[in-house]
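Predict the assembly for these three chains.
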Amino acid sequence: MSEDATLSHSAEHASEPHTHGHHHPFLQHHFEDMGQQHEASTLGMWFFVAQEILFFGGIFCAYFIYREMYPEAWKAGSHHQNWQIGAANTIVLIGSSLTMALAVWGAQQAKRKFTTLMLILTLVLGGIFVGVKGYEYAEHIHEGLFPGSMFTFVQQDAPHLTPGVHLFMTFYFVMTGLHALHMIIGAGLLLWFIKRTWRGDFGPEYYSPVEIMGLYWHFVDIVWIFLFPLLYLV
Amino acid sequence: MQDHENYSGHTAPHHAAPLGMYFAVFAALMVLTVITVWVSRIDLGAMNTAVAMAIAIVKATVVILWFMHVIHSPRMTWIVVISSFLWLAVMFVFFFSDYLTRGWNIY
Amino acid sequence: MTSTTIDDAPFIEPSTRERRNYLNDEYGVLSWLLTRDHKRIALLYLFSVTTFFIVGGIIAFMMRLELLTPEGDMFTSDTYNKLFTLHGVVMIFFFLIPAIPAVMGNFILPIMLGAKDLAFPKLNLLSWYIYMIGGTFGIIVIITGGVDTGWTFYTPFSTQYSNTKVFATTLGAFITGFSSILTGLNFLVTIHRMRAPGLTWYRLPLFVWSMYGTSVIIMLATPVLAITLVMLMVERVLRVGIFDPALGGDPVLYQHMFWFYSHPAVYIMVLPAMAVISECVAAFTRKKIFGYKFVAFSSLAIAFLSFLVWAHHLFVAGISIYSALIFSFLSMFVAVPSAIKVFNWTATMYKASVSWQTPMLYVMGFIGLFTIGGVTGLFLAALGVDVHVHDSYFVVAHFHYVMVGGTIMAYMAGIHYWWPKITGRMYPEWWGRLSALLVFVGFNLTFFPQFLVGYVGMPRRYHAYAPEFQVLNVLSTAGATVLAVGYLLPIIYLTWSVKFGRKAGANPWGAVGLEWATTSPPPKENFHETPVVTWEAYDYPAFLKAMKETQDV
């Protein structure tokens, strides 16, 4: 995400085609040209996504190990999740991925209004997702399923599974919590991008910030694609 | 390794993908989500997890290739994506090599 | 060739003495604290890591004072537990992991590539601030009572039973990890996308190859530490049982996840050291490194193999014996690429005309001591031996040989080697040589006895020991005193040299590399014109010819 040039200059020139010798207002001084800057920022975001894959991957691995150790408790824990809500939320999130991808498409073609709309839709859909998760969390807390000292739940039909259910719920909250945190950070970034898009910063010469925002958002979507069946559909 | 890896200077590359592609991908993801839920209601025993993960992997692949444009991306992007999943596979394989063999008899 | 300073030939010196450089380009505290210049950021790191090194060193010295006598008479066992924990945390997270990459990598890597800066200069500055925030947590912990779990934070002691500042420490380590990740990311993108025209992969200095390997490890391993520490913090705060056996958790899972990062982490510490050694060997033998491609690919091999061995830290923790056998074999195998490097450096020196400046003395120290450390690692990789010496001073000696005898020696070599480039001044050579000698003697006196006491049974992390171990412990403490002097002297004379040292030209060592093709200190944008590389790696005649041609134009 590059530094801002002066407002009026950038708004006028950013979406114009590149003319020989004309220095793009968003070209950072240590790069040769916009192409190199684009390639560098895209590659940089991919490396960041790679380390995020390892970050989430670690807790997924721990999840699978305990799932192998406590299959019954994992099943019982999963039954406390409302799969219909989970499925609906999955659709919402994949929808937000669509609007995000369309926003990248629009930014590349300097379609300022279309792109802004798509980004707003992404933000709204993401907000719905987080809101629904908040509702789910409130329900779980109400049922005494929040891990730690607030955990008052007892698995009535199989009391011996209660500690395993506790462990499952711990993984549930940590995994979906980290996921939601990433979405909230993404939402903050989206707000900033909505502002920049409306200002007319992006065009065929310079749209990599939107593209890398898209990469981040799609990655967060992919994490959920795995979380949904693992937590809701055991 | 070729010299084109060394950045030699050119302006912004590719043209935008056709709009229809994004909607087709979205439709595919919706179908796969429905399948995931439907299959989970059927009891396949130990295969449930495998099938659910297989479908999730297909969904993730679709997102990566088309929404994230990897299918049109340079070779380096492919290397980064594949390597990170490879490393994850190393973690899973070696962790489970301990957990699954703990119960085995030594002699 | 063997004079105390090598002055460059006139044609390498710019014809008009360049006055403006990155140091005097702008003045004021904010011009440093808000800089985007990778060279200034490197110096910010130099200042911070040196401070943490001194803190960690003082703690070590306190431990060695306690160990002069067999009884635990200086500190209580609880206090001693805090000392060794903090020594480990400070030295590993706040010194060894950042040191060579963030100081030398930051300064030299872009210049070696012919670039104006790293790919993401602002991210680079952010890295430093994140590191400082994490480090601040460390300092706060030290001041407010410390932490006693060992730098490894093994559960369930760290999560359920310890009454010390576990959360704050792990949070500090977690935060600092991001600094590391961002630096690695920056290096990878810069190496891939910002090389100067003509700089193909096989023309790159071996420093770049090793920093590349380091960055790969950083990107793939550090996030696993991050998630492990998150889980640890959750367990501590919420009192859940992710790793607590009483609540269904597995403490060995914590160890698996912790060491999945922490083993590759030691290669994050040693690969950059090897990077420096390659450069210094080439420079002070004035030869192309023997087996360039072998050394280059060994960096990548180390990056890969380092991820396959972590459970050798868990041999006696209760993992399955089949798993242990696999890890034991792989741990032997990981020594091979490191050995390849040692063989190639040695082969480079064969029949070469070697100059024995301070950096080269540290290089020789590295090669010998790293070999000893590495070989004792093979002892530990053998299951049967490990059962015997696990948690003894043998292990302590092993890792200090590779981390101090290895990494810190290379760090000192690099500091001295690139000092003229960074500051435009030469350090006083005889003081440099004296310090190198003191470090070498002090180091061996400190740590060799530890192999001996460890092998016959002295356990680590204890403030008291059996009386028969006293003589060797006294020798070890004596060595630590010498070592401390050896480290203190450079801090003094290097600081002195900034103002009073002999002015250095662009290429005081007559070495090959783009960093020697620009002035000392370099201008803010590193080069006045983007260089075009026409010479192979370490090709002395071609490089010097190219330099002459640049001057003659």
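DSSP finds three helices and no strands in chain B. Confidence is low (pLDDT under 50) at residues 1-12 of chain B.
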